[in-house]
Amino acid sequence: MPQPTRQAADRAAARISEIVEGVFALLDDVRDRTAALAGTRRRPAKADLAALRPALFAHLGGLVAGIGFIAAPGLLVDAPWYLEWWQDDPSGRPVQLLRDLDPAGSAFYDYTHWEWYAGPCEGAERTICGPYVDYLCTDEYSLTLSVPVTAGGVFAGVAAADVFVRRFEGAVVPVLREVPAPAFVISAAGRVVASSTAKWIGGSVFRGEDGFEAHPCGELPLSLVVASTATLRGNHRTPSHSA
Fold first, then answer.
1. How far apart are the C-alpha atoms of 90 and 154, rounded to whole Å?
2. Is the full-model pTM beyond 0.85?
3. Calpha distance 9→51 (Å, rounded)
4. What pLDDT, on the 0 to 100 scale, is given for residue 229?
5. Which of 164, 243, 233 lies closest to 199 in space, CA to CA?
6. For the chain, which residues make up each domain, given as ranges?
7. How far is CA 99 from each of CA 57, 162, 207, rounded to the nearest angstrom?
């Protein structure tokens, strides 16, 4: 890969890291606020989590389409399972997500099986899940970013945020277009998240191929992949898939 292209790729990877770190900074705030609530001597209740709402509402918008705290089963004294989750809405007012959290219910929502919950529960400091179609919440093509919440050294749940892929593309594709070669962002699982080439559209899987060079996006579970040959140059600057 020519040195100017590699330098442009490094700059783009740093910029993408900065964009995503902005969302994780919001999650770190939710994590810290929740940990303070859960770290009291008595077990918290659903009403205690209402104290998070002003911060959650303030964090909605921009890239963030939904944000909140997902409690570890048994954390709360009055709700074995609970989501303090809010979404932005065309009306401009936050809307609370309500799901059947009764294990005996036919539509019980067992969130512990989802990657965005299981990753932090199993020790991952930062998880990026997707892109996937979020049929349970928004029907949007989405990413979910999450971090663990601990209180007294014990896992208490997850702080998470939903980012619509179309919003992520709007922020990241202009950065990708500054790289003078086809470029795309992949998750730790190799799923394409955003792209400047139609050869690799959002949601496709990149398993590594000759002629490509990966650039880590800081400490995030994301990488910027850039073509190091002219193989895909004909597709360069073609908009990627949008949800």
1. 38
2. yes
3. 42
4. 61
5. 233
6. 3-17+167-235, 19-165
7. 19, 16, 36
